[in-house]
Structures are given as C-alpha cells and as structure tokens.
Amino acid sequence: MSRLHSLVYLLPQLWRTLFTRPITVRYPFAPPEVPPYSRGRVVINMDLCRGCGLCVRDCPAFALELEREDDSPNSSKGRDKFRLIHYPDRCAYCGQCQDVCRYEAIWLTSEYVPAAADRDVLREVHYKSDKGQGTGDKGQGARDKGQGTRDK
Ligand code: SF4
Ligand code: SF4
Fold it and tell me: What is the pLDDT of residues 92-112, one digit of tens each?
C-alpha cells in the first residue's frame, strides 16, 4: 500500500479517535471502577459476631485470629470477651470467612484495601469486652491506646 493510501485510510480513524472517550482505565486521574461483585475489604460487625471462630478455622491464608480474654478449658469466664483480628496483608480475599459465618458478621465489600509501607498498619482489631465493642485503630494506633489489641 502506498503512503498516500495509508494516509487516506488512517486519517479518518485518527480524527474519530480524537472525539471518542478512551476505553482504557483512567486511573490515577479518576477512581478505578470496580464491579459490585468484586471481592475487596473485609468488614466485621461485632454486634453480630459471637466469637465462634469458624472463620478463623476456615481461613486458608491465616488472615484471621481470635483471642479470648480467658481461654482456659475449664473456664467460661471471658468466653464472650474476645478480639477478632484481621490481617489484610495476608488475606487472599477468597470469601471463605463470609461463607462460613452463621451470623452474617463478616463479609467482603468491593472497596480497595489501601497500600501501606508498614504491614502492621493494615492490621484491624475488632473487640468485644465488658466496656462494649467496636473496632480499634489499625496497627500501631491500637497498641498505643492499649485497647483492642496486643503486642505481637
Ligand atoms: S465473624 Fe462469624 S464466623 Fe467469625 S468468629 Fe464471628 S460469628 Fe464466628
Ligand atoms: S477472605 Fe479468605 S483469606 Fe481473607 S480473611 Fe476471609 S477466609 Fe481468610
């Protein structure tokens, strides 16, 4: 094909491209669009969580940990006081924890998990105690307050 023929063929296409929206992802100039069924950040509702530990048992990535206040076999004291810790840096976002939970206390959202240089910062501590329940600050913050986590 001669050069002139090539130009005749290409120019209309180039012209059209100038006025059409790019089909590639616009990130980082716009937030990435994720499908609603994508598996992202893990959320735990401590109002619903009973501390049964099924999610911990079934997690293939060891991304969940359950710590009871008193875990001795002959004691029922402290059985309802516990911390459920999630490690997003280990999590495979497989959804097994959501599937196994009988109380619908844990589920995956389509939100991104932010990156961090320090893995410890990502750790999320959810606690249930005499003083109530909630989610401690992540990583170092929770340790500083001495609430909802323990030193690893
Ligand atoms: S999130 Fe569900 S499966 Fe995990 S400890 Fe709580 S109640 Fe049990
Ligand atoms: S999504 Fe999968 S890897 Fe992540 S905490 Fe749940 S079971 Fe574990």
Answer: 999 999 999 999 999 999 988
List residues near ligand 1 (CB under 6 A): 44, 49-55, 84, 100-101, 103, 105-106
Sign of CA dihedral 45, 46, 49, 54: positive
β strands within the chain, DSSP E: 42-44, 64-68, 82-86, 106-108, 124-129, 132-135
Q: pTM, whole model, 2 decimals?
A: 0.71
Q: What is the pLDDT of residues 20-75, one digit of tens each?
A: 887 787 778 887 778 888 999 999 999 999 999 999 999 999 999 999 887 666 65
Fold of 34-145: Alpha-Beta Plaits (3.30.70)
3-state secondary structure at position 67: strand
Two structure tokens written together for 66: 């359950």
